[in-house]
User: Fold these one by one.
Assistant:
Number 1:
Amino acid sequence: MYMLRIQGLNKSFYTGSSGDGMNGEKVAVRGVNLSLREGDFVTVIGSNGAGKSTLLNIIAGVYYPDSGTIYLDGKDITRLPEYRRAGSIGRVFQNPGHGTAGSMTIEENLAMALRRGKPRRLARGVTESDRKLFRDYLCLLDLGLEKRLTDPVRLLSGGQRQALALLMAAMTRPRLLLLDEHTASLDPKTAEHILNLTCKIVAQNRLTAIMVTHNLMHALNVGSRTLMMHEGEIILDVSGSERAGMTVEDLLDKFAKVRGERLVEDRLLLA
Amino acid sequence: MSPTVGMLRAALEQGLVYGILAIGVYLTFRVLDFPDLTVDGSFPLGGAVAATLIVAGWNPFLATALAAVFGYVAGITTGVLNTKLRISGLLSGILTMTALYSINLRIMGRSNVPLLRQDTVLTLIEGLGIPEPVRALVLFFVVVAVFVLVVSAFLHTEFGLALRATGDNERMIRSLGVDTDTMKIVGLGISNALVAFSGALVAQFQGFTDVGMGIGMVVAGLASVIIGEVVVPPRTVVRAVTGAVAGSVVYRLVIAFALRAGFAPTDLKLVTAAMVVIALAAPGTTFAPLVKRYLGLGSGRAAIAGVAGSGEEPGKRAGANQEAR
C-alpha cells in the first residue's frame, strides 16, 4: 500500500500569446508517475524548469493538474483545495520569508502551525501550555530561539527563519513533508545546519518527505531515494544498492546523456 | 489662536467616535493589507440604518447594533467580489461603495434624515447622572475602550492570528490549512461593521444623517491610522489598535486648528488628503523612501499597497517586492 500515489500527471502553463509565433504553452510536468511508501525520503534534482517545483505545488494543491490523479493514503486528493489538504501536508519554501509571518511573533507563528488543518476558533491563540511545548521544540533547533518567543519573526536571520519554518512544517507530524529547495537561499554553513535539522526531524518523526535540491551531493547523501527530472519527466529513479553505489559524477553523466539524446532527437526532427 | 476648552472637547468627542471607524480601517489597510474603499459607503449606511430605525420608533441601541450588522454585510459583499469573483480589491470596494449610495438613499427615502427630538443613545443615557458637558465624551470613551479591548483580544485568538497572517503571508497561512478567502471576507465584514457602527453614533451625535457624510471617510480613517503610528509606535497589536484611536483624536485636533486658521469646512477634505501625503512622504519618516519606490514602480495598486503596508514592516514589503522582480 503506497501512501502517496501519482498517476499520469500532466501540467502545462499558458502564458498567452507571446507575439513571437509561439502559442505560449509551457509543459511543466509530463506524464509523471510516482509512488511513495510510508517513511520514504525522496530527493529530487533537475535543472531549472525541469518541473520539480511544479510537481511539489501540484501535490500541495497550489495548482490542479491538467490530467492525472493524486492519491494520499488511498484518497483521491487531485481536486481538493490547497487549504483542505494542508492538514496532511507540511511545506517549507525556498525563501525563508515565505514560510513564516514576519510581523507576528515566534510563538504566534508556532501557534498557527500547531493548528494545522484544524478550524480556527475564537479561543486564545497562544496558551501557557503551548509556550512550554514551543520552548521544548525550539531547544531542538539549538539556535537560542526558545528565549525569544515574543520577538517578531522579521528580526530573525534567514537561517533562523528557515529553521522555524521547518519546525512549523513538521511539528504536527504531517503525512507528507514537501521541501522545495529549502536550503538554496542560505549561506553554505547555515544550509548544512538546516539540512542536518531536516534529517533529524524527519528521522525522529519517521516522516515521509520529498526534498527538491540543487545540490547533487545532498541528493545522494540525504534520504533513501533520488529522482532526476528533465523537461517535466522523471528520467531517473534510484534507491537501495543502486543508489548507494552512485557518485555525483554518475549523476552528472546520466544528466549529460539525457540531454545529449534530446539534442539528437531534436536534430532528427529538424532534418 | 489659543484653543478653547470647547474646541478641545469637540475634537476629543469626534476623535473618539470616529476612532471606531479608524479601528475598522486599521483592520483592512494594516491587518489584512487590503485597501478597502467600502468605508465611504458603509459609514453613511450605518447612519442611514440607525436614523431610519430611530425615526420609526426603534430603540436607539438596537438601531445602532443593526447598523453594524448592515455594515458587516456591506464588507462581506466587497470580500466576495474580491475573492470569489476575482475583482481587484480596490475595484471591489469602489463597486460596493457606489452601490451603497443608491441603497442608502433607498433606506433613508431622501438625502437627509434629521433626528431632532428623537431619542438617541445620547438621550437614553441621560438618567445615568453624567453631567451634560461631558456626557458624549464619557459615552464615546467607554465605547471606544471596549472596542479597543475586544478587537485586540480578537486579534490574539486562533482566528485572529489566521486573519493577521492572511494579511502578512497568505501563502504560508494557506499552507497551514486556512481558507484565506474566508479570512478576507470576514475581516472586511468586521471592519465595515465597525465603520457602520461609527456612522450610526455620529448620526445620533450630530442630530442628523446625510447621504454624503461618507465622502472622504477612507482617507480620514487612513490619516488617523498613519498619525496613530507616529503617536503610538505599533510594536504590539494592542498598541496599534490604541494608536488608531489616538491618531483619530489627533487628526480631529488638526482639523479643528485648520478651521480656526481660516479654512472653510469644505476645504477640509483637501487638508486631510494633504495631511496623508505629508505623513507618508515627509523626510525622515520610514514612509518616504517606500512611497518614492512604489510611486517609481508606476503601478497604482502597488502604490496603494505600499501606503497600506509601509508603516509596520518596511522589510516585508521590500522583500515581497524583490521577489516580484
Number 2:
Amino acid sequence: MTTRRRWLPHPWLSLVLLGIWQLLVNQLSVGSLLLGLVLALLIPQLTRRFWPRPPTLYRPLVLARFALRVLGDIVVANVQVARLVLGPNARLRPAFVVYPLELRNEFAISVLANTISLTPGTVSADISDDHACLLIHGLDVPDAQELIDTIKQRYEKPLMEAFECSRP
Amino acid sequence: MPDLIEWLVAGLLLTGSLFALIGSFGLFKLPDFYMRLHGPTKATTLGVGALVLGSMLYFSSTGELGLHELLISIFLFMTAPTSASMLAKAAMQLQVRREGRTRGEPWKH
C-alpha cells in the first residue's frame, strides 16, 4: 500500500495523462506507450505539491454517467442559449443566484463549478471565501429556487456520490 | 469517400459554424457584460465540438484514425469555464454596469 502510494500517488491522474498522451501522439506503438507510461508516472510525482488533499474517487461509474449526462446537457444548453440570444433582449430575466454548496472536497467543487458554466444559461462567477457558496449568473432565470434545486439534484448529488460517499 | 460520410461531415461543419456564429452574435447583441459572458462559454463550445467531430469523421474516413482532435474539445471544456469565472470576478471587482432588471447582487470584494 505504501509503495503503491509512493510510486502512484494519483492513479486516475496517471491514467488520464496516459490517455491524453496517446491522443497527442495519435498512433499506437510500443515506443509511444512506453514514453506515455513514463510521463504518467513522472508528472504526478512532480505536481504532487499542487494536490494537498487529493480527491478519492469512490464510484467511477457514477462519475462516468455524470459525464455523459453533462455532455447531453451541453448540447441542450447550446440550443437553448442560441434561442435566447436570437430572441428579443427584453424577454431575458438575468439574475445573480447564491448557490449553497454541500460538497466539501475542493476538486469536486471545481468540477461542479465548471459543469455549471458549461450547462444551460448559467455561469459560475465566484466562490465564497469559506467555500460554502457559489455565485452563479443566469442568463434567463424564471425562478432562482428552482435553478438551485435543479443543480442540486442533477449535478451536485452525483458528484457527492462519486467523491464523498463515505459521508452521510 | 462515401456520400453519406460527406453529407455528415458537411452537416457537422455547418452546425458548428452556425453555433459559433450565434455565440459571437450574442457577444455583440446582449445588453450587459455578465450576459455577454454566456455567448462564448456555451454556443461556442458546441460550435467547436461539432467542427472537431466533423474533422475526426473526415480524417477517419480517409483511412488514418484521427482522435487527437478530441483533445481540443477536452482542453476547451476545461479552460472556457475558468476564463468565464475569471472575467466575471474581474467585472465584479470593477463594478461593471449591469442591466437594471438583474435580480440578485454581485459580491463585493
